[in-house]
Amino acid sequence: MPSIDTSLTRRSLLLGAAAATAALSTTTAFADDALPPLGLPKGDTVLTVSGKITRHNVGNTAVFDMASIEALGLDSFTTLTPWTKRVKFEGVYLDKFLRYLGASGTKLVCTALNDYGCEIPLDMIAQDKPLMATRINGQFMPIDHFGPLFVIFDFDRHPEWQSNLIYNRCPWQLQTMQAV
């Protein structure tokens, strides 16, 4: 009976397992979800995302129109803010949006149309689930009323967030984000 080289068999099995593991580790968090691919926006660009992201559609950035943001699925909550009465905000949870882009790093640098800038720690986004709102009470937000995008926290759910630190992490008229 011929002898079998068991070290070669083990090595082949290990290499095959390593290749399968590597293939699985490159799968994005949303690979099994019914989220749309990141195509080019058909409407006016309302948001440009750069930095440590793995999905791009224009060079090293990801650009979005309102339809492509809302195509990720709308989430909502109703809350009272320092700037509004109790209203219903609708949009995409920021952690879901950043997972879709494959974002990494330690913080998200946000810039508004009026050049206001802020930084939001990525671990805070994952834990506290702020919304990148596209609508207030079912209506798109015009530029002169927080629009087109407004990062907002659910202050009713967590009264401890009612502080200047968190208020300053709520940019409205959001125009760009950079994962760093």
Automatic annotation (TrEMBL):
Protein name: Molybdopterin-dependent oxidoreductase
Annotated signal sequence range: 1-31
UniProt entry tagged with the keyword Manganese: no
PROSITE patterns per record: TAT (PS51318)
Assigned keywords, A-Z: Signal
Coiled-coil stretches noted in the UniProt entry, renumbered to this chain: none
Superkingdom assignment: Bacteria
Domain Oxidoreductase molybdopterin-binding: 83-149
Organism: Acidisoma silvae
